[in-house]
Design the sequence.
């Protein structure tokens, strides 16, 4: 799988390159600034891009802008955005086109290599990987509203994991229950939140995120 | 419409005319008499009392000038120092009053108001009501006057019979017209006269500015020092301590690697957890110093991000076609953050509306919530602090929170808007 990597701090970039190569990714380009990232994304059209939000030359949100720009020109281009801090505002912007293949994680998540690589693969496959912090903020904000308040604690737990972008199987492993139990929870959640039921994992996650993002 | 306005101005003129006699003149006489009596001692004790009363009377006149004629007059007095008790305190109080040039300007104003001010005010009143008086004469009142042997003069018309009474009636229209036109303007002149003498002199104004700057600078330094202390403490107790713990864990791991790999593995995962926690703490600390989203996106989006994190439904309206100076932006951000926190915590509000715009060299932020109201600047913990912080930039915060709501907080910060970010 070909990866474009954008990270301005040498140590982190180097670490990420080594980590990704250890898991058999091919680094097509590793850049350290916004303009080069723009070029790399559009010429290489990688299978997945791993992008830091803040990049030179302005050290604002160049990485994010480059990612959004590239996705406008190449719809669905898989991008995993990394940042020292997560903002709901950015999450909403990344999810706005509703086409999946999006990840948004704290840089700390790199510490757990297996989980991180799992997230990269999920995004590359058109799925989503949202940071638990984004999801918990969304849940806090939404929980005053009626339908979400009706969920059982277990269902809320499943909803949170689902919103992070995990499949039923992954959720089942995480909560140490059977996949069938999770399937039952998810169909209950979809019924209570009045969301369209779908067998496709990615579609389901996007529906949940759209629901949580709505005001 | 105009007639109503003129009538109102005329009635106010009558009011000010009466005040000139009952207030200004009386206070002038009392003040002068007791200042003179200072020479024999009595005045030392009574002058401060009389002056205090006179000052509160003049404070009322300043407010009237603002409410009635829209002329804002600042209070020019020197701030009141701390006085000792007993006789010494009385002397200090006396000195404070007599050394303030505004005291003498007040005397000058009082006598001017009792003369020129009185004349203007009564002129405004009579000019308007003289016209209708002419009509009253023409309507028949001339008859009993003339027949009881009197001969009233209506300005230069000697009313001696039907013809001259009619002429007076016609003249009445001229006066009424003049009155409608001139009365409000005479009262405006009156208010300007008040402003020129009741307000601070240019010198005093500069002095007041210096006083304000000294105060806000010291506030700014205090908050900054407190901020630095907080950051130091947070780093010391947080990230620094965690890094030490991590170092120790790693040292132990090195030691245990061969002897007890299981234990080493456990320590490694502890070290990773420590680093994770240290990062979280640093992240929170950074948010408190300068929120990343503010640096990345500017005030508008930073406030949007704040609003999104609220457990309330928020509507944000931003009209900032450019960027603000970083310090102003940061002060505004933290002010909004504090106000929103208050709204979420104490007001019981379900919705909040934010409006940010830049007009006339001023950043204006309005925050409205549908909570129960009754918020109080003096009771609230945070609002005073925000006010002090904004003061450094000559910004102000106004709170309007009647019991039952809604609460409206308005923040105004003078600042320039530069070209938008690329």
Sequence:
């Amino acid at each position: 799988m070909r990866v474009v990597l954008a990270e301005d701090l040498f140590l982190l970039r180097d670490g990420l390159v080594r980590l990704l190569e250890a898991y058999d990714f091919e680094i097509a380009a590793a850049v350290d600034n916004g303009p080069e990232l723009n070029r790399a994304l559009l010429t290489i059209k990688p299978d997945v891009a791993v992008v830091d939000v803040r990049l030179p030359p302005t050290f604002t949100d160049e990485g994010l802008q480059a990612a959004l720009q590239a996705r406008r020109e190449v719809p669905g281009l898989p991008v995993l955005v990394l940042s020292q801090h997560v903002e709901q505002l950015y999450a909403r912007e990344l999810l706005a086109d509703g086409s999946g293949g999006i990840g948004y994680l704290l840089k700390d998540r790199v510490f757990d290599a297996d989980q991180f690589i799992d997230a990269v693969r999920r995004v590359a496959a058109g799925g989503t990987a949202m940071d638990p912090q984004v999801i918990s903020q969304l849940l806090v904000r939404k929980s005053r509203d009626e339908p979400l308040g009706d969920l059982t604690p277990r269902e809320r737990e499943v909803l949170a994991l689902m919103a992070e972008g995990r499949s039923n199987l992954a959720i089942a492993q995480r909560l140490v229950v059977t996949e069938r139990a999770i399937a039952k929870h998810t169909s209950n959640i979809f019924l209570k939140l009045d969301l369209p039921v779908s067998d496709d994992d990615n579609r389901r996650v996007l529906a949940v995120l759209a629901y949580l993002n709505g005001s | 419409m105009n007639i109503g306005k003129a009538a109102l101005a005329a009635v106010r003129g009558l009011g000010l005319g009466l005040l000139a006699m009952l207030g200004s003149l009386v206070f002038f006489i009392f003040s002068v008499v007791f200042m003179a009596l200072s020479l024999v001692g009595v005045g030392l004790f009574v002058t401060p009392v009389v002056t205090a009363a006179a000052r509160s009377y003049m404070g009322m006149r300043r407010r009237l000038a603002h409410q009635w004629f829209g002329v804002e007059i600042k209070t020019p007095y020197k701030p009141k120092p701390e006085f000792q008790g007993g006789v010494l305190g009385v002397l200090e109080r006396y000195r404070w009053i007599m050394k303030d040039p505004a005291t003498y300007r007040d005397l000058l104003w009082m006598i001017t108001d009792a003369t020129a001010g009185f004349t203007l005010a009564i002129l405004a009143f009579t000019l308007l009501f003289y016209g209708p008086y002419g009509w009253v004469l023409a309507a028949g009142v001339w008859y009993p006057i003339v027949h009881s042997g009197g001969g009233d003069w209506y300005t230069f018309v000697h009313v001696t019979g039907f013809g001259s009474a009619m002429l007076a009636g016609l003249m009445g229209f001229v006066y009424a017209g003049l009155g409608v036109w001139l009365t409000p303007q005479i009262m405006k002149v009156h208010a300007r006269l008040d402003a020129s003498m009741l307000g601070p002199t240019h010198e005093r104004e500069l002095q007041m500015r210096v006083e304000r700057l000294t105060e806000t600078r010291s506030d700014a330094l205090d908050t900054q020092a407190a901020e630095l202390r907080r950051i130091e403490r947070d780093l010391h107790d947080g990230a620094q301590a965690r890094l030490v713990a991590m170092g120790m864990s790693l040292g132990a791991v090195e030691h245990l690697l061969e002897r007890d790999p299981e234990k080493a593995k456990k320590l490694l995962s502890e070290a990773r957890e420590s680093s994770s926690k240290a990062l979280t703490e640093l992240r929170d600390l950074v948010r408190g110093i300068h929120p990343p989203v503010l640096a990345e996106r500017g005030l508008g989006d930073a406030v949007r991000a704040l609003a999104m994190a609220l457990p309330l439904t928020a509507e944000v309206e931003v009209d900032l076609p450019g960027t603000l100076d970083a310090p102003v932006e940061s002060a505004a951000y933290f002010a909004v953050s504090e106000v929103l926190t208050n709204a979420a915590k104490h007001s019981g509000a379900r919705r909040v509306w934010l409006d940010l715009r830049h007009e006339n060299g001023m950043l204006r932020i309005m925050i409205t919530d549908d909570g129960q109201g009754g918020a109080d600047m003096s009771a609230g913990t945070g609002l005073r602090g925000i006010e002090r912080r904004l003061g450094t930039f000559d910004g102000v915060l106004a709170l309007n929170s009647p019991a039952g709501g809604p609460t409206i907080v308005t923040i105004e910060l003078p600042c320039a808007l530069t070209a938008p970010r690329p």
